[in-house]
Amino acid sequence: MGIEVIVEGLTKSFGKQTVWQDVTLTLPPGEVSVMLGPSGTGKTVFLKSVIGLLKPERGRVLVNGVDMVNGPERDIYQTRKLFGLMFQDGALFGSMNLFDNIAFPLREHTRKKESEIRRVVMERMDMVGLVGSEAKLPGEISGGMRKRAGLARALVLDPQIILCDEPDSGLDPVRTSYISQLLIDLNAQIDATMLIVTHNLDIAATVPDNMGMLFRRELVAFGPRELLLTSDVPVVRQFLSGRREGPIGMAEEKDEATLAMEQLADDSTVPIAPPTVVPQLEPSPGLPPRQAVQRRRARVLAMWDQLPAAARTAVQAGLAPVQGEPA
């Protein structure tokens, strides 16, 4: 099972520019979480801070008892091996074929024999649908294949936590849907904790167990997917509906005067459609059920009284009864 990641009071700045401040959340073990936010809100910076590649000024990130912000470098380095990181562009070595790219972490960090390395690499290539492309160079394949190769490389050290940075960037809607299904299938197969950074609404609506959103240098919310998908918080509603009206502007957040003028100009006779919560993706036929589903069910029911009515209704509609319980 994946490992819980506890983020407490995290604050990151570059010079005088605060990226985000006092971010606190917990990634539940083995569940899939998504971090949303407009471009430029520091989603990738957050991802790199979780794994210890960037050092926030305040706060801590606890993984297996190790603080990835303030802990000893040796402990951070060892704990980082629990992570698999999928970069936006795959971050493949252009002069290496796909097999050698995917094998690289095994050759760098383990003493496995080449026969064992080949077995592991081919298993991971099979998981992401790349068998037969071992000899191809990154420049000879599509963007979607490069992303899948990057994901296979992230999996070869059997990570318990997988971080995916914009897995949909540069992909058409069809390839994005394939990547979405692939992420759910991987979670079913290896039960790893997963955090996906994206601004893709299709991934946000169908993949995660939990969702969060960064805006105006703060974590707007984090919780079960139904909490954000039914939220009436203006910035969340605007982002998830793709409307121009709301706090998010073209370059940055809108000022209060602009928002006030927008509100006056808004035609109140045109109702905003209530948010719809589409079913979460399920593993492909032949794969085991996701173990995270029942753990999440118990966790969400434990926080039932804290959820708004709309979120409770959405949760109830999506909850499958446990075995032996009446539907």
From TrEMBL:
Gene3D superfamilies: P-loop containing nucleotide triphosphate hydrolases (3.40.50.300). It holds the Pfam family ABC_tran. Residues 5-241 form the ABC transporter domain. The keyword Transferase does not apply. InterPro entries: AAA+_ATPase, ABC_transporter-like_ATP-bd, ABC_transporter-like_CS, P-loop_NTPase. GO terms for molecular function: ATP binding; ATP hydrolysis activity. Keywords: ATP-binding, Nucleotide-binding, Transport. PROSITE patterns: ABC_TRANSPORTER_1, ABC_TRANSPORTER_2. PANTHER family: INTERMEMBRANE PHOSPHOLIPID TRANSPORT SYSTEM ATP-BINDING PROTEIN MLAF, PROTEIN TRIGALACTOSYLDIACYLGLYCEROL 3, CHLOROPLASTIC. This is Ribonucleotide transport ATP-binding protein mkl. It comes from Actinacidiphila cocklensis. The gene is mkl.
